[in-house]
Amino acid sequence: MKLTPALSGLALLAAAGTAQAACEEITFSDVGWTDITVTTSATKQALMALGYDVDVKILSVPVTFASIEADDVDVFLGNWMPAQEGAVKPYLDNGEAVILSENLQGTAYTLAVPSYLWDKGLQSFADVAKFKDDLDGKIYGIEPGNEANEYLISETESGKMFEGFEIVESSEQGMLAQVRRFYPNEEAVVFLGWAPHPMNANFDMKYLPGGESFFGGEGVVNTIARKEFAADCPNVAKLLSNQTFSLEMENTIMGAILDDGAEPDAAVLAWLQANPATVEPWLDGVTTKDGGDALSAVKSGLGL
């Protein structure tokens, strides 16, 4: 059946209305890592200034990808690659999740040790077993279900590098509390480290080579969305596709949160107010929810 021009126009208007309705509220996953809390907050505050409602759910990485597949989550700003390759690949392969952009470059993520332990000879994954007694047979990870923890646990069970070790699962904050406990007396500790993060300034630390088959080398962070998100909400998808962050930005804001006790949204807003030019490229080709000037709305809404 051919549509007349008038009917075609009506169909397009109806489709636009449906997309707009699907874009009333944007749902993000925050997996509880401070860097993702920072980037999610920055995005949330910009979107709210544009007139959108934003819901942020605290979920683990596996639940995040399952929720994207189920259309319960729209966007995830924390797809660390290559470390999450195994977790995200099934959802990219079946088309239920799509990569909108690469939002951060130059990341690091693997096991780390304080420099004093490196100087004693623990300088690679292969060296960890040699220090088993000093380490009390423990490697400190982050939240249960995290893909890096799962990899490390598999290595304890396979009779390979970490046979007989316990992978201590807690949280980012819990892991770093343990490192702080060991650090002053130069006690042995191996833990998951990453950059950006203020741990790199708070501890004199080294990243261990030897885990490249899982962790890779220098990495990136991707913005992931459910498959229909860009069609349902093209204006927000445009902002997300434009959006990039920097190591300096994330390190500074994370330091304010973790070291100075600042509330995350307040720390993010203070940084954006001190660095207002950051948001301008995010808003290229973007409007407010109602079609107005995006840059003016964000500057006004955030006090930039």
**Residues in helix, %:** 40-55%
Largest sheet: 7 strands, mixed
Based on the coordinates given, report the CATH architecture of the largest domain.
3-Layer(aba) Sandwich
Q: What is the average of the pLDDT values?
A: 91
Rg over CA atoms? 22 Å
Q: How many distinct domains?
A: 2
Beta strand count? 9
CATH superfamily of the largest domain: Periplasmic binding protein-like II
Q: Cα distance, first to last residue?
A: 52 Å
Secondary-structure class:
alpha/beta
Q: Looking at the structure, what is the overall shape?
A: globular
The topology string of helices and strands comes to HEHEHEHEHEHEHEHEHEHHHHH
Residues in β-strands, percent: 15-25%
Q: Helix tally?
A: 14
Q: Based on the structure, what is the oligomeric state of the protein chains?
A: single chain
CATH C-level of the largest domain = Alpha Beta
- Weakly predicted, low-confidence segments: 1-21
Named CATH topology of the largest domain: D-Maltodextrin-Binding Protein, domain 2
List the helices and strands and how they pair.
Elements lengths: L4 H18 L2 E6 L3 H16 L3 E6 L2 H9 L5 E7 L3 H9 L3 E18 H5 L18 E3 L6 H11 L8 E3 L3 H11 L8 E5 L3 H4 L2 E3 L4 H4 L3 E8 L2 H4 L1 H9 L4 H12 L5 H11 L19 H9 L2
